[in-house]
Structures are given as structure tokens and as C-alpha cells.
Amino acid sequence: MHYFAGLDIGTTHTKIVICDQALTVYFQSKRPYVKGAGATLDSLEILDNVNLLLQEVFSTFLKADDNLTVSFSSAMHSLVLVDGNAIPLTPLFTWADASAQPVMARLRQDSMAVQLFSETGTPLHPMSPFCKLAWIKESEPSLLASAAKCVGIKEFVWFRLTGQWQVDHSIAAATGLFSQRIVHWHPDALRIAGVEPHQLSTPVAVTHNITGSYTVDSKIHAVNWVIGGSDGGLAQIGSGAIDSDKAALTIGTSGAIRVMLPRLWTDENMELFTYMIDADHFVCGAAINNGGIITRWWQEEVMQAKGNSAEIMEAFAADAASVEPGCDGLTCVPWFAGERSPVWDATATGTFGGVKISHTHATFKRALVEGICFSFRQLLEKLEAAHGPIRQIMASGGFTESKWWVQLMADILQRPLVLPGEERDASAMGAIAIALKSAGIISNWDLLNFPATQVYSPAVHTKMTYDKNYQYFLHLCRSSSSLPPS
Questions:
Q1: By three-state DSSP, how is residue 236 classified?
Q2: CATH number for the 240-420+452-486 domain, one of 3.90.1150.10, 3.40.50.300, 3.40.50.2000, 3.30.420.40?
Q3: Taking 50 as the threshold, does the pLDDT of residue 484 lie above it?
Q4: Alpha helices (H) in 194-245, listed in sequence order
């Protein structure tokens, strides 16, 4: 039997999903991180998790005559500097790292840095490796000069498994260093960031594969490694949001909403990102910092809740759901971790407006979640203004475990939200789709046969309430950022 694995490297855990070529799921497993959180992670712990998952697959699932293809998905915007032996010199900086904020004013005044957006599609923000490297160049130039490689986490894992320093076009496109027009590193971006071409990996197609091996308990197993792509681009494929009138919406620690484009397009207002998957597929969208990380922060820090994380979040949702829609006027701009789209301002702050003495802890919890949904409504409007009507939204990520939150999102966006018919990770499924295309089993992703789905239709009776609070949300947004929103 030939199995296909999607191995997704996220910011809270690493997970693996195994299917056959008909996309029937046979095996799933995941491992959380315990070293580091949020802005910085431990690259070696992530590598250990990858190895433990692969060992689990070979030891408990695969039979001796089975074949395995492993394709990778990874969170975007990560950066680690390593020495000549591929030993990390720094923590793994994630999208949430805001260390580069001190150089943002200078970069935004640099006409070349601003012009790069039209080719890189990556907004100027501390999340990007381009800005991170510019900061290291300024603050620790000797560290940058001594680094053999400046790479993302998937490149680090890929090298340890294959011996090759390579990066897929999808991950490279989100670095701010990569020209999507020439499909290679941009010389001016490298100059501003202070890195040499030899310090970066070689860009390759998302379907690039290497026939190799993997050793478990002294037994050598043949494996076909496929480099895969970014979690955002692969979630687009893995959730079936291929058509122009469908968007993919993901909320985990952070969140994003995206549409698929057939060609490169960059936003002249620099509010939306654009990242390539291949020459004929680009994802355009917007990302928020404040997804599940904010609800968890509220429970653990504000409410001082203790115990099992899943139980804590179930209690949060139960409290929030007990409040009437609209929260009696209480409205939240949830930029408590700074914000990406549409303001791209790491110094932006969150706020509650319309506070009354009658409001309870539960009211604030619901307002927080409604605020996250309003953020997506704002981004949905910007996507539609740029690319036309979106009639259906394919949902994925941890928030889909809450039926209440999914229905709330449908009500506020006034669009049907579609979930997979069975529990499956959209990014990992997208990685498997890349593997199927790499193997020549499919020629196009719209040929994929995804199983039956669950649809959450928007309620009509709450529309007027949410429309009113959304206008107040937009008013509050204008005072919550140090940068002028559009």
C-alpha cells in the first residue's frame, strides 16, 4: 500500500495525517511544544517532534511492504540562524516576534523597501524574516555575519532529513526577501536585510521531491520526501477553496482569510498580502495576530483560570455563549497582540468600547470573540473590493472545534461557513495534495475529491445587531493604531 503523509509544523504543535490517494484518512497524531511559546520556539524541539511522529508512523502504523511519501506544511515567517553544522545560533523567531519594531520607521521611509512590496507581496511588518534580519543587522551585526544559514523552520527540518538547504517557493514568498516576478531572491531585499545569497536556501517548486530513507530501530525505510508549502497556501488547497468565489478562513493561534488567484497581484494599498504557491496559483489575503491566543490569554491571565487547556477554553465558550448577541453594545477591537491586517502595526493596542456597569465577565468574553469576527468581516470586505464577491467560506483551524464560534462567524460575516465532513487538518491535507501532484496522480487540485461537508448558514435575526456593532468597531479601530487605517 502506498500512503501519503502531510506533516504540518505549526506554532503550538507538530502534527501528521496519513491518507491513501483517495484522501481517506488512516492515521493522525500530533505533539505539542513545551519549550518556548508565542514569539520564540526551540528548533531542536520541533525537530524532535517531527522525528517522534515519523517513528510513531513506522513503528505502529506502516507494514513492511508499505510505501510512504511525506509532504511538509509549515507556518510562515519563521527565522533561525544556524552555524556551519546546522546548530541553531538563535531561538526560532515566529511570526509573533516583534523584535524588529525599532527598525520599522526607517524601513517605511526607505523608498526601495516600500517598493519591494510590489514584487515580494509581503507587507512591512516585524513578522517578516526581511524585517527580522534588518533588525539583527542593526543590533547584532557580528551574529548575522557569522551565520552560515538564515532559514525558516521547514528548511531546518528539511536539511536534517535530506541534507539539502532548500526552500519551497510558497515559504520563500512570505519572507519579504523573494521576488515573485523573477521567482528568486531579490538582490535589493538581501542588501537591505544584510544577508548574502549563500546564507539562504535554494528556492524550489512546492512539488520538489527527494527519494531518501529514514531509520527507525536500526531499520532503514525508503521514503519519498516532498518539500510542500506554507500552511496558509496549503490550507487553501486542503479546504477546497480553489474557486474564485470561495475563501479559506483559518483561526488557530492567529488567523487568516485568503482567496486563490491565477496570477500575481499585489495590493496598491499594501493591506493584503500575496504569496505564490506555483506559477498558476497565488493566495491573496490578510492575517490577524489575535486569534485563539487572545481567548487563551483572557482566560489564563485576566480570569486566572487554571487546569487543562481544553477545559479552560470550553468554559470560555460556554460563558460567552450565555450572553445575548451584540453584548448589550459592548464592542471590542482585539488588537491586544498588535495587529497585522489591515493596519500592519505591531504597536496597535486592543480596546473595549461601550462599557456599562451591567456588563459581566461573560459579556467581555463574548465581545472579545465578536471582535475577532468583526476583524474578519473588515478583511472580507477588503478582499471582495479587490477580487469580487465571495459566496462561501471554507473554515479550518482550532476554532472549528467550537460549533458556537463557527455559527457566530457565519452570522457576523453573513456568509455560509463550510467545515470538512470529518475532523482533518486543512494544511496537512493540502500537503498531501501537493504530494499527489508531485507523484503525477493528479494534474490539478480541483480534481481532488473532498468528503461531504458541514454547512453553517448565517442567521437573519441577528444581522441588524451585528451591523450596528460592526460600525462601532470600525470607529474604534481608527483610535487603536498608531498608523492611519485606510
A1: helix
A2: 3.30.420.40
A3: no
A4: 231-238
